[in-house]
Amino acid sequence: MKDLPLHLSHFGLSKQPFAPTADPAYFYATRDHKSCLFRLWSGIDERYGIAVVLGSYGTGKTTLLRKLMSGMAADPERYNTVVLASPIPSWTSFSLLEAITKLFGLLPSERSFGAHMEALNQYLLAKRHSISTLIIDDAQNLNKRGQLELLRLAQNLETPQHKLLNLIFFAQLEWMDVLRAAPNFHQRINLMYTLSPISVEDVHELIRFRLEQAGATGASAPSFDTATIEMIHAFSEGNPRVIVTLCRNALVLAAQLKTKRITQDIILHTIEKTTVTSEETLARVKSKMAPEAAAEPKAMAVGAQNTIAPIFGLSSMRGYKRRANQLLIQAARAKRN
Predict the structure, then answer these.
(1) C-beta atoms surrounding 85 within 10 Å
(2) What is the pLDDT of residues 177-200, one digit of tens each?
(3) What's the half-sphere exposure (Cβ side, CA atoms, 13 Å) at 153?
(4) Which residue range(s) make up the domain with 264?
(5) Are 64 and 36 in contact (CB under 8 A)?
(6) Is residue 10 domain-resident?
(7) How far apart are CA 153 and CA 49, in angstroms?
(8) Is-contact 125 164, C-beta < 8 A?
(9) Could you write out the DSSP letters of every residue in 241-277?
(10) Is there a single domain that holds both residue 323 and residue 233?
């Protein structure tokens, strides 16, 4: 295949299955993600007002946002939507209001709070037959009382039938503390959804789905066995972004070793060489090593000449297990102290 990295050609892939970008085409929706999307769409269509989606880094918030946007873009007469990405924490409430009116294409007659609010109000009234929605990504940057008060005022604009503006926030988990400190805003939230880490089963399906999207077929496709999936889950703790990054780097190593199988040894070496991790996490990962993994490096050594020995030849399976147990004990003692 032309213009493809060599490691992708090795696996017969037409695209990078584990790209770092939040491409909706590669988004595997877990039951949790589907539930969240269903609730968001319901709230948007019913014009309930404020919805908040919380999750740690890499749990799929930005991709959910893009899913929403792509759905709304397909029906522009029904949906009038703008996105404010990564608001600046130091913004005053007026700076935030200016950013919002600019996104909606408004040019108020004067540079004052009242003029901007009136322009927004009149605009939303004129658009009342469409569903107007403001989506804010990285909403945890909004940590000032004045910023939330401004958003509360903007969301108060309404007709007797419904709200004139939906507000959808995607934020890190720590934003909950900010919301608790602003009850006047918090009490107006109609939907609060927290994304959970994904399961081992979902890790398997996520990898399978992404490989299929990238054109993986037949014997040339990368192969992840159950034990390897469990190790990936143990390291990532169910975080999709971490899973994607680990798999991307593992494919490069597997291609270097001229194997289609992504084994536990490949995953372990990838973790040790390409990530920043703690001894406790490494111990948890090594505790998942299956007995047959110890023999795998020998099987892969054929045709790989001397490139395998520095990577895999220093530790036996028994050594992995012993070291993993030692690290787990050390971590437990450190927590007690």
Answers:
(1) 11
(2) 999 999 999 999 999 999 999 999
(3) 18
(4) 6-19+198-336
(5) yes
(6) yes
(7) 12
(8) yes
(9) HHHHHHHHHHHHHHHHTT-SEE-HHHHHHHHHHH---
(10) yes
